[in-house]
């Protein structure tokens, strides 16, 4: 018995695609195998590594944990959509090149999409916020040192680039749910000792003892 | 790691969804899918049909009044976490949510879905129990409210009937003068906690809820227990287990460490709230 | 004058495609949908660690729509006779008396959870997995042997015909170590354990094959560290001439060692299926498969006996260790041989004896993972140095310094045989200077004051260090081909493959420097057997040394030809010519002087005497335009075209070195371990691109942190891997690595190759576990003077358990 196919429309990087897919088709596979947008990579298929992260209506999600049928009608931005219309690298991409933020390049698309949304929501991340921004993505090559630098550099480039160059930001419209930075801040400042606080403590120790790396 | 085939329904109304679920004992509900889809990809679950709630209208609200926070079945963790009002009325929800996985998962995962998944290692079930919250569920016989204390009946098991769909969760407000705190220790940032603890102190009442310690989210009443005895008193009510990440002994130690810590933080929070009210 | 690019932090050329999502990894190949679209393979894997296969029933699969083939071992011989035999044992060794390898699909018996049992080829991976689920296998379950202890006990055997589960025993001796230990003024014994981990590249294995009946050739894309190795193996196993097989290594999403193994069962099954079905076939390994059916490393139990004098000088070192090599030995004894030789590090013990047994267990095979046996050896040696210092009440750096090989002692001959079958002779280094740099970088001398200050606050901090020497750039050889096209662009081919190390950039730097061309005019292709059929592979931090040297030599040859032709064309002496930005000119001549310069494109045109012109440039090379009518158009000892090809084959390996130090804090209550500072000093000889070298170190350190504090393979006693997912195999996120890694460089060029290069790829990971063990122990001793860290990795739960255990029960 042939598997039932579902007619869906996905808008990817500003282009609408009509697809017929089985219900179980993961968004990651639909992008890669049905639309041949192979920039989105699949590293674990259980939502941990973040390599497949794409922007769904502007927000980062794991494409391996979403069925294509379930996001019909929505807008998807993949790494291919982060390049400027003239073919030049977007600010996050450019920052990665400048900072040597990638080696094998396999995890990179997930970092690029995540950071694109991250610096949109928080255009001037502190160093700690830059680290937090990428804390849900695995990289096996770089030890993250240069990725953190790239986040900070990307924020600078994005600010310098200004909104007039924002035409490439297909589907990157500001989020309605996470735009309130003050809320995030308040959560971080509650008395609870979450991991983020540990990091801050560590910094303080380093600063006071001259042992900062 | 690809899911087995399943039928797919995308109902436009809740009634349709309930009817579809009632008519198919092998069907499962899909909301955020951040717990379900990994299980499907690994073929550890193989529902006959997925009933996708994502097209249902009106379920993605986070509504807040002085009585508490009501979270719709399609409200993503990120939306709940971002709600300033929710944080004001029941701060424990946001405190716990900031520990749920990573932001990208929170963008898709739903708070109600996490509750229904009923993982004793997850943050939100214990928060629902600790706050005395409830789940509103819709079934063929209509709507009913399930108290958190009646909801979690076993590992990954709730008292919901197969044909019932959770419509919203209600986290009652934190009483004026009360304080809350949430602490957890995980192997990596964003991992499931080795041990997590949420606390609500309200005057003499001290209650601490634990995750990852027992098969069920467990709340222990520690009212009247001396500061120095908090950890042992909590342990008397818990039976920490072991797994590849932590021995039972180590979990017990974390309970000893986290319990006084989270209670102290909750007291501090109460004092802070009081100060703010007076100020 | 063009700036020399050697030593410059040149931005990587490969990034342009990676950052745009235009990298081409194996699973990205042949993605066009259509009637003749690629088919997808899935493999049924053993759910049991040890079992006899009684029966396999595939009848339910045959009717599944979309399934094109289902094969078991029984089908293989008919498809290609050589497939009936086991997979090759890649690196035989006389000591490997009982080497065993698996079959492409299990024959009669399975020996680890994950071993390939059946292959399904279907329209897509979803359907292929459905079909795999319908295959019924009747297993007769046998007792599983898991872990070194069970293997040594040998109550059960992994292979019936391998007594004691012992694949090999190898002893190397220099002097009489037992006697030296016995006669020494002081003696210590240590038992040290390292658990299994794995490379875990974010891209798993993958292979795509297309059989072209029109040309009778096979085209194979595979995510490998050795394209020529795969090519040879596939040709043999499929009964093809080497010339019928082209292996292309596309972009590879990380290797770290695991992808040096070849041929994987799927690397044979996929081309076999493509040939049999007349359709391209793809296998893309998923994450669970990568955990249970690729390879692991590190698991070793080690016993050290050391005798030393009052200064801490090692007079005798007697080491015995047991290496868990898993169910089969396709990669021979490379890992334990490296441990046994590289354990020596920068030291010169008076007498040394090392013996190891390589043991079978019913677990995934063990093959090199970045560092390849060195982290274990370094752990043994550095823990020994710490123990000596502790025993004598000396500073840990002092004891190390007392044992260093001195700068004037190079080349230093250890009188042992290294992993390449050649003498273990260190080429160069300066270990005392390196230690001084490390002490300054980490603040070693200031640390006790800081430690006391922290202790006063009730906080436990500790410092540890690890020193290593790493044999890099082993042979036998690598080659390079440099081709100056008539456009003036330079196309370079190297034979080994690339997995993110920036080879396209660093080798272009070398060519640009040597040939005098613009960096952006050089394009490097790696791992394509059509372009460079002779090569070995990417392992042992050898790419920069081996291919770097070969590229340099090949560019030199091309340059010689450029100058010869240009001298002729410009009627000048070769010695008077220079090449700058792709233009050959007479030194000192005005830039616009007529007839004083010629661009490389024109030189290329002239290098190839033509009968037929195809564009304006090529007219200049046709038979009525050039050449002395009295001579053959191509001289007797020459060949047409402007190319340079050369190979580099060294006498022996180069030896890079490094020292790491780490400062940690251990929580007195929760036993959580926090990294406060991580410092690295390393010497990889001449640095081609410091940005890339530092990136390699960052990544190595992060993997080292994983292996020290987070990652392990958690097998239960029945041989089930309990943490075969990224949920439970805890690779570090950014939050688990330090915010900043302090790095200092030392350059002692290797005398063995023209550029003085040593390798850098594995450096970061080698001494990490040793340094952490020392630091954690140091921190713990603030409150427990007897604390001793003898097993890595260590989790907070384990550290807590250690705190509850009296000293005599440890180790």
Automatic annotation (TrEMBL), chain A:
Q: Which UniProt keywords apply?
A: 2Fe-2S, Iron, Iron-sulfur, Metal-binding, Oxidoreductase
PROSITE patterns (alphabetical): 2FE2S_FER_1, 2FE2S_FER_2
Which part of the chain is the 2Fe-2S ferredoxin-type domain? 6-82
Q: Where is this region: Disordered?
A: 161-213
Q: In which pathway does it act?
A: Alkaloid degradation; nicotine degradation
An MF annotation (GO) of this entry:
metal ion binding
Q: What is this protein called?
A: 2Fe-2S iron-sulfur cluster binding domain-containing protein
TrEMBL record, chain B:
Supply the InterPro entries for this chain.
CO_DH_flav_C (IPR005107), CO_DH_flav_C_dom_sf (IPR036683), Diverse_Substr_Oxidored (IPR051312), FAD-bd_PCMH (IPR016166), FAD-bd_PCMH-like_sf (IPR036318), FAD-bd_PCMH_sub1 (IPR016167), FAD-bd_PCMH_sub2 (IPR016169), Mopterin_DH_FAD-bd (IPR002346)
Q: Name one GO molecular function term.
A: FAD binding
Alphabetically sorted, this entry's keywords are: FAD, Flavoprotein, Oxidoreductase
Q: Which domain of life is it from?
A: Bacteria
The answer on whether this UniProt entry bears the keyword Flavoprotein reads: yes
Q: Which residues form the signal peptide?
A: none
- UniProt keyword Oxidoreductase, yes or no: yes
* Ranges where the FAD-binding PCMH-type domain occurs: 1-176
List the protein's name: Xanthine dehydrogenase family protein subunit M
Source species of the chain: Nocardioides flavescens
TrEMBL record, chain C:
SUPFAM superfamilies linked: CO dehydrogenase molybdoprotein N-domain-like, Molybdenum cofactor-binding domain
Q: Which UniProt keywords apply?
A: Molybdenum, Oxidoreductase
Which GO terms of the molecular function aspect are on file? Answer: iron ion binding; oxidoreductase activity
Region annotation (Disordered) ranges: 623-642
Enumerate the spans annotated as Aldehyde oxidase/xanthine dehydrogenase a/b hammerhead domain.
20-143
NCBIfam families recorded for this chain? CODH_aero_grp5 (NF040766)
Task: Write down what this protein is called.
Answer: Molybdopterin-dependent oxidoreductase
Which species is listed as the source?
Nocardioides flavescens
């Amino acid at each position: 018995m042939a598997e039932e196919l579902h007619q869906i429309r996905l808008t990817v990087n500003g282009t609408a695609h009509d697809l017929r897919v089985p219900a179980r088709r993961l968004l990651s596979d639909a992008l890669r195998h049905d639309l041949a947008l192979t920039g989105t990579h699949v590293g674990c298929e259980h939502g941990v590594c973040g390599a497949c992260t794409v922007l769904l209506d502007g927000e980062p999600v794991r494409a391996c944990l979403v069925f294509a049928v379930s996001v019909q009608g929505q807008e998807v931005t993949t790494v291919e959509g982060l390049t400027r219309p003239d073919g030049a690298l977007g600010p996050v991409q450019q920052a990665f090149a400048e900072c040597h933020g990638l080696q094998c390049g396999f995890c990179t698309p997930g970092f690029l999409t995540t950071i694109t949304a991250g610096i949109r929501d928080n255009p001037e991340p502190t160093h700690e916020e830059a680290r937090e921004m990428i804390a849900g993505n695995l990289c096996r090559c770089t030890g993250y040192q240069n990725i953190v630098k790239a986040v900070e550099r990307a924020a600078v480039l994005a600010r310098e680039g200004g909104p007039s160059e924002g035409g490439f930001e297909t589907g990157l419209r500001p989020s309605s749910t996470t735009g309130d930075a003050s809320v995030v801040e308040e959560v971080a400042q509650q008395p609870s000792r979450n991991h983020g606080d540990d990091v801050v403590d560590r910094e303080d120790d380093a600063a006071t003892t001259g042992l900062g790396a | 790691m690809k899911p087995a085939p399943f039928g797919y329904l995308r109902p436009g109304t809740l009634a349709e969804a309930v009817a579809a679920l009632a008519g198919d004992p092998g069907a499962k509900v899909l909301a955020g899918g951040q717990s379900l889809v990994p299980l499907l990809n690994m073929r550890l679950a193989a529902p006959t049909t997925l009933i996708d709630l994502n097209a249902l209208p009106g379920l993605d609200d986070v509504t807040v009044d002085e009585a508490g926070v009501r979270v719709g079945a399609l409200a993503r963790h990120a939306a709940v976490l971002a709600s300033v009002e929710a944080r004001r009325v029941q701060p424990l929800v946001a405190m716990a949510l900031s520990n749920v996985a990573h932001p990208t998962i929170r963008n898709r995962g739903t708070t109600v879905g996490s509750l229904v998944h009923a993982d004793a290692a997850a943050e939100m079930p214990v928060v629902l129990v600790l706050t005395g919250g409830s789940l509103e569920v819709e079934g063929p016989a209509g709507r009913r409210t399930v108290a958190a204390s009646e909801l979690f009946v076993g590992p990954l098991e709730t008292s919901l009937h197969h044909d019932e769909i959770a419509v919203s969760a209600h986290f009652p407000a934190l009483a004026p003068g009360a304080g809350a705190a949430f602490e957890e220790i995980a192997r990596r940032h964003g991992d499931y906690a080795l041990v997590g603890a949420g606390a609500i102190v309200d005057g003499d009442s001290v209650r601490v809820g634990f995750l990852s310690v027992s098969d069920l989210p467990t709340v222990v009443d520690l009212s009247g227990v001396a500061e120095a005895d908090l950890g042992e008193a909590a342990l008397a009510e818990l039976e920490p287990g072991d797994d590849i990440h932590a021995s039972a002994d180590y979990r017990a130690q974390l309970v000893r460490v986290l319990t006084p810590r989270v209670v102290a933080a909750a007291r501090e929070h109460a004092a802070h709230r009081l100060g703010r009210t007076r100020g | 004058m063009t700036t020399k690019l050697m030593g410059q932090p040149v931005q990587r050329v490969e990034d342009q495609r990676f950052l745009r999502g235009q990298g081409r990894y194996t699973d990205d190949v042949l993605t066009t949908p259509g009637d003749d679209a690629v088919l997808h393979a899935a493999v049924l894997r053993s759910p049991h660690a040890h079992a006899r296969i009684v029966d396999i029933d595939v009848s339910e699969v045959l009717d599944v729509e979309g399934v094109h083939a289902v094969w078991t071992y029984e089908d293989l011989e008919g498809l290609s006779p050589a497939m009936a035999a086991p997979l090759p044992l890649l690196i035989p060794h006389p000591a490997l008396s009982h080497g065993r390898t698996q079959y492409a699909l299990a024959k009669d018996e399975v020996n680890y959870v994950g071993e390939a049992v059946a292959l399904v080829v279907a329209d897509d991976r979803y359907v292929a997995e459905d079909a795999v689920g319908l295959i019924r296998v009747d297993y007769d379950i046998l007792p599983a042997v898991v872990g070194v202890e069970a293997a040594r006990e040998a109550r059960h055997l992994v292979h019936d015909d391998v007594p004691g589960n012992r694949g090999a025993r190898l002893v190397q001796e220099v002097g009489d170590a037992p006697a030296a230990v016995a006669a020494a003024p002081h003696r210590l014994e240590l038992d040290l354990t390292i658990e299994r981990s794995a490379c875990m590249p974010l891209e798993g294995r993958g292979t795509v094959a297309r059989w072209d009946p029109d040309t009778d050739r096979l085209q194979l894309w595979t995510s490998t560290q050795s394209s020529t190795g795969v090519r040879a193996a596939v040709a043999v196993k499929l009964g093809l001439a080497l010339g019928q097989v082209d292996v292309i290594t596309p972009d590879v999403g990380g290797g770290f060692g695991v992808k040096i193994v070849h041929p994987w069962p799927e690397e044979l099954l996929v081309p076999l299926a493509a040939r049999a079905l007349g359709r391209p076939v793809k296998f893309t390994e998923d994450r669970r498969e990568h955990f249970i059916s690729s390879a692991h490393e590190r698991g070793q139990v080690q016993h050290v006996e050391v005798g030393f004098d009052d200064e801490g000088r090692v007079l005798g070192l007697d080491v015995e260790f047991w290496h868990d090599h898993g169910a089969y030995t396709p990669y021979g004894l490379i890992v334990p041989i490296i441990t046994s030789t590289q354990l020596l590090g920068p030291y010169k013990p008076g007498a040394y004896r090392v013996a190891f047994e390589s043991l079978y267990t019913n677990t995934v095979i063990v093959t090199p993972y970045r560092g390849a046996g060195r982290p274990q050896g370094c752990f043994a040696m550095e823990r020994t140095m710490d123990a000596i210092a502790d025993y004598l009440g000396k500073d840990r750096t002092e004891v190390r310094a007392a044992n260093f090989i001195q700068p004037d002692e190079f080349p230093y001959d250890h009188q042992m045989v290294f992993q390449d079958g050649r003498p273990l002779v260190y080429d160069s280094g300066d270990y005392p200077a390196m230690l001084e740099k490390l002490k300054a970088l980490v603040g070693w001398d200031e640390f006790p004051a800081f430690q006391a200050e922290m202790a006063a606050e009730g906080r436990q901090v500790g410092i540890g260090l690890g020193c290593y020497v790493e044999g890099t750039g082993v042979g036998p050889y690598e080659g390079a081909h440099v081709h100056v096209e008539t456009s003036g662009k330079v196309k370079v081919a190297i034979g080994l493959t690339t997995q993110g190390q920036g080879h396209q950039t660093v080798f272009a730097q070398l060519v640009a420097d040597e040939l005098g061309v613009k960096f952006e005019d050089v394009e490097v292709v790696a791992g394509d057997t059509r372009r460079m059929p002779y090569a070995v592979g990417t392992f042992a931090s050898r790419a920069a040394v081996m291919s770097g040297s070969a590229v340099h030599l090949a560019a030199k040859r091309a340059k010689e030809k450029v100058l010869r032709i240009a001298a002729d064309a410009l009627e000048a002496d070769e010695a008077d010519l220079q090449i700058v930005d792709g233009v050959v000119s007479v030194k000192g001549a005005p830039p616009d002087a007529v007839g004083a310069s010629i661009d490389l494109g024109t030189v290329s045109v002239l290098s190839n005497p033509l009968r037929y012109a195809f564009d304006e440039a090529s007219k200049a090379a046709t038979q009525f335009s050039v050449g002395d009518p009295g001579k053959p158009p191509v001289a007797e000892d020459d060949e047409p075209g402007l190319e340079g090809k050369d190979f580099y084959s060294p006498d022996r390996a180069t030896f890079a070195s490094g020292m790491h130090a780490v400062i940690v804090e251990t929580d007195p209550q929760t036993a959580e371990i926090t990294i406060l500072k991580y410092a690295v000093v390393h010497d990889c000889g001449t640095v081609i691109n410091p940005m890339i070298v530092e990136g390699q170190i960052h990544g190595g350190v992060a993997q080292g942190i994983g292996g020290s504090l987070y990652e392990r393979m958690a097998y239960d006693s029945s041989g089930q891997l309990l943490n075969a997912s990224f949920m439970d195999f805890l690779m570090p996120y950014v939050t688990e690595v330090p915010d900043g890694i302090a790095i200092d460089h030392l350059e002692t060029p290797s005398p063995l190759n023209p550029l003085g290069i040593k390798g850098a790829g594995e450096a970061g990971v080698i001494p990490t576990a040793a340094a952490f063990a020392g630091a954690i122990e140091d921190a713990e001793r603030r409150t427990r003077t007897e604390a001793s860290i003898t097993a890595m990795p260590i989790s907070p739960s384990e550290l807590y358990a250690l705190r509850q255990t009296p000293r005599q029960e440890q180790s």
